């Protein structure tokens, strides 16, 4: 198949290209394609006539989204509509990546795909609007707490902090599933090629708080996990502009019911990533 990837220069996009194997991949970076430029998006899709379009482009700086609302909506919502319209013209199947931030985080227990979204941040609201813009025939893949070899992420941040001498404090009242691009990218490619419509939660397994995750990173690099101590979100100074869901745990129910395998426990790809980075 011919597959067009938007946001191909990002953390997920760069792992997605090799995950598509023998398929013909078109992977323009941000400089080559501004997804907020409707004319450019429609022109490129019409010109290359792909079978699949996988949208990895997003504004994911959740705090910046609170102040740069227009930019957040343009990238996370309106751009998805441009892609959906372009796909409709050439008969391509659209896949777009979304987030745990579409939920408010107040549920007791994991969020299933059938749970009602209730985003509390500009980022979450713009991504939920992007899901709607993709249309009912598209594939929407929600994921959470993403890290990988490319680009900035929490694993790299924690490793950098642990290289210093300071004690670290991470919140223990936000929980989720850390997810790694090395595992997410192949599943995203599989769902795209299969053309499976609907919403899928795709995360690595293993529920942990950010405090617990920082300790797991410390263990993975051979640092003393006792250097990491817990704190409450309300203790953070200054407070973060964007509200975070206290519960970001996504149940991969749709993936299981469709017969796809679950991704690994997050500690396995974490160990592999730390080894690569070291």
Notes on the protein architecture:
The chain has a domain at 2-151 and 178-205 and 249-264: NAD(P)-binding Rossmann-like Domain (Rossmann fold, 3-Layer(aba) Sandwich), CATH 3.40.50.720. Helix 4 (69-90) runs parallel beside helix 5. The protein has helices spanning 11-19, 38-48, 62-67, 69-90, 122-134, 154-162, 181-194, 210-221, 253-257, 267-277; strands spanning 2-6, 24-26, 52-55, 93-99, 139-143, 146-147, 168-171, 175-176, 179-180, 198-201, 208-209, 228-231. With 278 residues, it is an alpha/beta fold.
How many helical stretches?
Answer: 10
State the CATH superfamily name of the domain at 2-151 and 178-205 and 249-264. NAD(P)-binding Rossmann-like Domain
Oligomer kind: single chain
Largest sheet: 6 strands, parallel
Strand content: 15-25%
Strand order of the largest sheet: 2-1-3-4-5-10
Give the fraction of residues assigned to helices: 40-55%
CATH class of the domain at 2-151 and 178-205 and 249-264: Alpha Beta
Number of strands: 12
State the end-to-end CA separation. 36 Å
* Overall 3D form: globular
Order of helices and strands: EHEHEHHEHEEHEEEHEEHEHH
Give the class from helix and strand content and strand pairing.
Answer: alpha/beta
Mean pLDDT: 97
Topology overview:
Elements: E1 2-6, H1 11-19, E2 24-26, H2 38-48, E3 52-55, H3 62-67, H4 69-90, E4 93-99, H5 122-134, E5 139-143, E6 146-147, H6 154-162, E7 168-171, E8 175-176, E9 179-180, H7 181-194, E10 198-201, E11 208-209, H8 210-221, E12 228-231, H9 253-257, H10 267-277
Helix pairs in contact: 1-7, 2-4, 4-5, 6-8, 8-10
């Amino acid at each position: 198949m011919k597959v067009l990837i938007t946001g191909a220069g990002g953390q997920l996009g760069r792992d997605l290209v090799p995950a598509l194997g023998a398929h013909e991949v078109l992977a323009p970076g941000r400089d080559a394609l501004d997804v907020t430029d409707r004319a450019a998006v429609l022109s490129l899709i019409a010109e290359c006539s792909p079978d699949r379009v996988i949208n990895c482009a997003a504004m994911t700086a959740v705090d910046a989204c609170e102040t740069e609302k227009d930019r957040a909506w343009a990238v996370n919502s309106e751009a998805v509509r441009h892609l959906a319209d372009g796909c409709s013209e050439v008969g391509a199947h659209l896949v777009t990546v979304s987030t745990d931030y579409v939920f408010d985080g107040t549920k007791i227990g994991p969020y299933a795909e059938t749970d009602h979204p209730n985003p509390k941040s500009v980022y979450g609201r713009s991504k939920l609007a992007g899901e709607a813009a993709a249309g009912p025939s598209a594939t929407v893949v929600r994921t959470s707490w993403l890290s990988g070899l490319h680009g900035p992420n929490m694993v790299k941040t924690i490793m950098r902090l642990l290289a210093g001498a300071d004690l670290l404090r991470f919140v223990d009242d936000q929980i989720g599933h850390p997810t790694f691009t090395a595992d997410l990218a192949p599943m995203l490619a599989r769902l795209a090629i299969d053309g499976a419509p609907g919403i899928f939660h795709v995360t690595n397994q293993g529920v942990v708080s950010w405090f617990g995750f920082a300790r797991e990173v410390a263990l993975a690099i051979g640092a003393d996990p006792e250097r990491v101590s817990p704190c409450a979100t309300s203790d953070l100074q200054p407070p973060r502009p964007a509200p975070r869901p206290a519960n970001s745990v996504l149940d991969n129910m749709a993936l299981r019911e469709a017969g796809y395998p679950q991704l690994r426990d997050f500690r396995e790809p974490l160990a592999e990533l730390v080894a690569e980075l070291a």
